[in-house]
Amino acid sequence: MRLHVAEHPLITHKLTVLRDKNTPSSVFRSLATELVTLLTYEATRDVRVETVSIETPVTTTEGVTLSHPKPLVVPILRAGLGMLDGMVALLPSAEVGFLGMVRNEETLQPSTYAERLPNDLTGRQCFVLDPMLATGGSLVAAINFLFQRGATDVTAICLLGAPEGVAAVEAATEGKNVTLVLGALDERLNEHGYIVPGLGDAGDRLYGTV
Ligand code: PRP
Ligand code: URA
Fold first, then answer.
1. 25-43 and 9-19 are packed helices; what angle lies between their axes, rounded to 10 degrees?
2. What pLDDT tens digit does each residue of the chain (210 aa) get?
């Protein structure tokens, strides 16, 4: 597994506002979008492209275009949906599939309640979006799901990660082509499985408590 933790003052600044418990949902949503766009730039460094020939007004030259099949972006509902706009702003021709997962807050085990993905992901580059990597249970389940469908290459973008979650993803994906891109690597999990210092419940911060 490759791990990339963003180190950029603009990302840290935006994360600081996101972490602040007084930041309202409207601001939280737009900041999450901006942060994902910045992280997408790093996460797509190895996106597959192919050479194309074009004519400029001056001459013929070669450039690149995204390869087929196009990348698949997979937000993990609910909170991952708040990251989708920021990603497709840079990858407008990507296809989008959905995984709905919720963590049981007593056992911290994830369960899947929705899935809308192509049956065959052979050869697809997949990008998973989930703002929080806590115990890693949800992300490991999502990545395994994509590999079972034939994906060979998965990049996950998370706004915040805990060391425990990073270790869990690393252990569960040994030998597989997995990249983890984090906005920040936080200190630890607390006794309730929340990231410290974190930002609280990302889904609630984005959409309110339901
Ligand atoms: C949050 C978050 C991740 C998961 C992380 O989702 O968006 O999916 O928890 O925790 P883990 O690493 O310990 O699995 P949650 O289950 O709260 O669902 P939601 O997106 O519907 O709020
Ligand atoms: N899920 C969240 O939304 N926040 C955390 O800190 C941990 C899991």
1. 150
2. 999 999 999 999 999 999 999 999 999 999 999 999 999 999 999 999 999 999 999 999 999 999 999 999 999 999 999 999 999 999 999 999 999 999 999 999 999 999 999 999 998 999 999 999 999 999 999 999 999 999 989 999 999 999 999 999 999 999 999 999 999 999 999 999 999 999 999 999 999 987
The Cα 41–Cα 8 span in angstroms is: 13
Mutate to test the pocket of ligand 1, among 29, 77, 78, 101 (most ligand atoms within 8 A of CB): 101
- β-partners of residue 200 are none
Tokens 């369960």 label which residue? 111
Ligand 2 atom 7, closest CA: 194
What sign does the dihedral 173-174-180-185 (CA atoms) show? Answer: positive
Question: How far is Cα of residue 150 from the mean position of the Cα atoms in its chain?
Answer: 19
Within 6 Å (CB) of ligand 1, which residues are found? 76, 78-79, 101-103, 108, 110, 130-139, 165, 193, 201-203
Retrieve residue 83's tokens: 């990251």
Alpha helices in 67-153 (DSSP H): 84-88, 137-148
